[in-house]
Amino acid sequence: MNLPGEPSQHQNPDQIPGRRGFLKQTGALCLTALALSGCASRAPAGKAPVGRQATAPAPPAPLNGKGAAPVPALRPGARIAIVAPASAAPDASDEAAEWLEARGFVAQVMPASRTRLESPYDYLAGSDADRLADLHAAFAAPDVGAVWCLQGGFGSWRLLDQLDYALLRKHPKPFIGYSDITALHLAMQRHAGFVTFHGPMLGQDLLAGKREPTESNLLAMITGQVGRGSWIAPPQDALPTELVPGVASGHLIGGNLALIAALTGTRNEIDTRDAILFIEDVNEAVPRVDRLLGQLAAAGKFDGVKGLLVGNFTRLRAQMDDAQAQGLLYPLILDQFRSRGIPVLAGWPSGHGDPNLTLPLGARVTLDTGRGALRLDQAVVI
């Protein structure tokens, strides 16, 4: 999973020469001051996150052959809430707002995304209560069309037992992020039951300039341009590797391998029955990946899997580039999955690599290793 230093560091937007001029030259919309509800700037809090409060367990979302419920499509000109449920990147939130507005959306910067706690909680963007309030406010607001994470890092798991899943079920909308945000994806899949999007984050990916089709793939999916029957395929220069051939269908679930393992045994653990399992990670050495896979196997989490999609594993601490180093993982993956008789496709460009394709978690999909692609078997937005 992410280590200290992964959160993107950005200059103050006012200190970047010519950037606003560039946006105007490329046809960006004129930016107006963000006088939006909940957008007031807040100084970094110095208090520790609030303690856990006991909550009644939410009922698991029932499995069905149709997959998770689609969410309302993002409309042109919609308002998008920028949230930071995990680590801090306070200098990036207003730049992310400009990025969205340059594409015709209205940006709502949620307060905690502009903050960073003091040590020893300086890896968090605001207290648990503040980050939780931002999520609840973003989902509850009728004029917010999508909830988009600024950053990964650490800390999403701290919110899971306090999330109001009934509120989320009442106000479904596209929720976008990955890495540490995997904790929220898993909890929402189990307790809310609608499609969420494992996709690029505003600060960590899009402001960092990850290449196409990172941006276009996401926007096409959440606006409804990629519908039932569509194939999700990587670009020609990022083709995946067929480790075990085959075709299989199931609901797509997963994300960051370390977070999946960390939540095993909790009420928010992954449900892999009838699943196409997706895994990716960063900064995990090969022996640690082996241990994480072994832990999930021992917990029975591979027993009901119909197919495996292996995403980007970057910074494996091997003396070679990421593309070569990923091959070191293939024997470990085959040790766990060859005898299970399920298709395995590896090197899929989603996660911490570049590009970062969006995956609709909870949706029914078909994995075809020969084609090197995923087919959507249901609508993911309506």
TrEMBL record:
PANTHER family: MURAMOYLTETRAPEPTIDE CARBOXYPEPTIDASE (PTHR30237), MUREIN TETRAPEPTIDE CARBOXYPEPTIDASE (PTHR30237:SF2). GO terms for biological process: proteolysis. The active site is at 179 (nucleophile), 280 (charge relay system), 352 (charge relay system). Residues 249-367 form the LD-carboxypeptidase C-terminal domain. The gene is ykfA. It is an enzyme of class 3 (hydrolase). Belongs to the peptidase S66 family. This is Putative murein peptide carboxypeptidase. It comes from Achromobacter pestifer. The lineage of its organism: Bacteria, Pseudomonadati, Pseudomonadota, Betaproteobacteria, Burkholderiales. Residues 1-20, 45-70 are annotated as: Disordered. The keyword Membrane does not apply. It holds the Pfam family Peptidase_S66C.
